[in-house]
Amino acid sequence: MGEEFMRLPTAFAHPRGVTLQWDFVKNPKEGCDGQAGITSIMAYGRLEVFYPDGTFKTFLLNEPNISMGRSTGNMIALDVDGISRYHMSIAHVDGETRVTDLDSANGTFIDGTKLESNTPRTLYGGEEIQVGEVRMVFHSFDETPTRPILVPEETTRRIEIKEAEFTLAIIEPDQAVSPGAHISAQITINNNGLESDRYTVDVSGAPADWMRIDRRELEVAGGKSGDVVINFKPRRRPDSTPGDYPITVTVRSKSQPASPFNELSASFVLHVLPYGGFGMALETRQVRTGQPFRLHIHNQGSAALPLTISARDLSDSLRVNVPQPRYQLAPGQRALVQGQVTTKRLKLFGEPRRFPVDLLVRSGDAAGFLAATRLYVVERPPLPSWSKYLIGGLAVAAAALILVGLAILFQPPSMPVINRYDITESVREGDLVTLSWDVENAASYAILVNGVQYGDTLPREQNSAQLDLPNITGEISVTLRAINNSEMAEQTRTVVITPRFAISDFSIAPTLLLRYVAQTVNLNWNVPGATSVQITGLESFSTAPLQSSYAASGTISVIGIPTVSTPLTITLVATNEAGESVTDTRTIELLDPQCTASTGDVALYGAPESVGQIVATIPAGTTVSVNAQDNSGGWLRVLLPGGAEGWGNVNSLTCVGFMPSDLLRVISVPTALPDVPTATPTPTLRPTLTPTSTSVMVTPTAGG
Question: What is the DSSP annotation of 599-650?
């Protein structure tokens, strides 16, 4: 299914180990740490080098031929085990960067694939190079996508509205992208009008730090077109969830913001592949016989990863016991593997001896990658070499005493026997995990969660326990260890902790609207695990029908005119497959639209015409509330004290925060009004209102 490659740890808690990663897909001699080492020679790329101890250096590549290896005669010297004296070379020829393995002993790997010796391989940027225990990443100074992409003509889609004065053409990505790699899409904006226009471009549907737009705003002359390139680069992190991301590109014309045809949208799907990788490290590389060793493992990929732990005895003198050899790690999850090494034969006399043992970790996915780390086991005989001669001289006189002492010394304690071990196999996040047991010949007990001891050692008379495991979900292993002096027995059970059903995100923008004015409300939500999402509360805002049910995550925009006197209360109700439901509510406050007499005193008439009766006069500079416009758009209806109303000419009033053309339009207006005493409206204060719900930062997610 894919190719595998090794990568050293950059954020691993214990540096004594290795890290491996793979994707699922068909001359300065001194480094620099960011600013030092920059030269005036034109460089064609840079090489980031990660060493086994966790440190790294960056080398600028500005020589046509650069050799690398352990020898100090190389332009980049890497004095690390597993690297040949002259291991590989990087050359820049005819605008291409090529890497060649120089017939090295352990080989050179590009993205997990071993190079053929003395055969150049072209680098495009973003490749990971593995030599021995050193990982390197090549970055080209060319900002084009990682691989040249030839887009077939038929992948271009056109989006147009007959009434709009511009159209869109989109060239979608034609292949899936792995985290850490680049891919791009192109939007072409065709201005079909006669005048120049400016357009804004917005992109949603994927995390913001994955996307880069080369031009968010551009001007296109009449009858011409302009291109916008959108680059996508998913981060190489465990939280970069693989799958399909629905991308929406929205282009808006700035010349006619009030027109209902000033916006076009194009959609396509970004396919993100998973990548695999794991790290492993020993807390200490040397232990004594019988002393537990502790191996940390870490799933650094973006997909669930099964791992199997085994051991290879290089001396054929040891017994290696790994109580739990198999693990299933979620993306980013860590686990602690514990085991014990003893010698096959106990040596009473002599000097300490050290035995090598390789701990092997193999991934259970299609890559089947195998990694090893070396552990040293030290055997210290209880008696030095010279003591056997002393004991031989005293053997006859102290034979009885020695026999009694040896009998006591080698009398093993009774082995604990676990007759029963029961545990709650499935719980919800935050609930207690209950376990009970029946054990013989045990002096104490220890509970281990994912290989790490939970709490203190328990006394022999205890036969049950409850575990509080907050903020943990997924499969975990819970081990009961029965201890009797140096003897112990273990059994392991698997517990599945399912996350609680909750609303991850529910946001509404804006949180403040003007009555009687046409406006747009944007809603965004994300409820992991939901099978149905219902939204209510917009009935008094818009007559446009809403769906009866939505997916687990999504975004909608609703256009309407609020006319009610109370704030809008919008409620989200989500239901999962088990029938559970969660609810969240947001409130949008409402204010009256206001305008100011800007050309002097403004006369208000009983009807939208200047030949009728004057019912009131607005003093210059006075702010009043309005609630409608007439059918021609030339008159605004002003609210007067005591509930009366009058019509003022739109050219005599200045409105802030809205366009008069967006006001509620009154189709039928009486041409005559009953006599109303002429009144002078009193100035009204513009209230400052604080929204009732806190603004929420929205990160677009893949549709559920």
Answer: SSSEEEESSSSTTS-EEEEEPTT-EEEEEEEETTSSEEEEE-GGG-EEEEEG
β-partners of residue 244 are 271
**Alpha-carbon dihedral 542, 547, 553, 556, rounded to 10 degrees:** -30
Average pLDDT, the chain: 83
Q: What contacts 233, CB < 8 A, 6 or more positions away?
A: 177, 180, 181, 182, 183, 210, 212
Do residues 586 and 567 touch, judged by C-beta distance below 8 A? no
Residue 652 — φ and ψ, nearest 5°?
-95, 0
Residue-wise pLDDT tens digits, 125-175? 878 898 988 888 888 875 443 434 334 344 566 666 656 789 999 999 888
User: How many of the other CB atoms lie within 10 Å of CB of 583?
Assistant: 11
Instruction: Report d(CA 331, CA 391) in Å as an integer.
Output: 59
Query: DSSP states of 468-532 as a string?
Result: --TT--EEEEEEEEEEETTEEEEEEEEEEEEPPP---EEEEE-SEEETTB-EEEEEEEE-TTEEE
For tokens 């204010």, the residue is 591
Q: Report how far residue 103's alpha carbon sits from residue 88's, in angstroms, rounded to the nearest whole number.
A: 8
DSSP state of 389: H
Q: What is the pLDDT of residue 3?
A: 31
Sheet-wide strand order for 243-253: 217-220, 197-204, 243-253, 263-272
pLDDT, position 39: 35
Q: Is the pLDDT score of 527 beyond 70?
A: yes
H or E stretch at 692: none
Residue 688's alpha-carbon distances to 106, 589, 632, 658, 685, in angstroms, are: 71, 11, 32, 17, 9
Encoded amino acid at 109, one letter: F
The answer to whether the beta carbons of residues 248 and 168 sit under 8 Å apart is no
Dig out the tokens for 695 from the structure. Answer: 């603004």
What is the DSSP pairing of strand 512-514 with strand 581-591? parallel
Cα dihedral sign for 9, 12, 17, 19?
negative
Tokens found for residue 140: 């080209």
Residue indicated by tokens 């495991």: 469
Return the DSSP state at 403. Answer: H
Our measurement of the distance from residue 219's CA atom to the centroid of its chain's CA atoms, rounded to an integer in Å, reads 35
Q: How far is CA 680 from the centre of its chain?
A: 61
* Domains contained in the chain, CATH given: 25-140 (2.60.200.20), 153-273 (2.60.40.10), 417-498 (2.60.40.10), 505-591 (2.60.40.10), 594-666 (2.30.30.40)
Report the share of the chain in percent with pLDDT over 90. Answer: 54
b/e per residue, 313-324, with b = 16+ CB within 10 A? beeeebebebbb
Contacts of 502 (CB under 8 A, 6+ apart): 527, 528, 582
CA distance 451 to 406: 36
> pLDDT digits over 56-109, tens only?
788 999 999 999 999 999 999 998 888 999 999 999 998 899 999 999 998 999
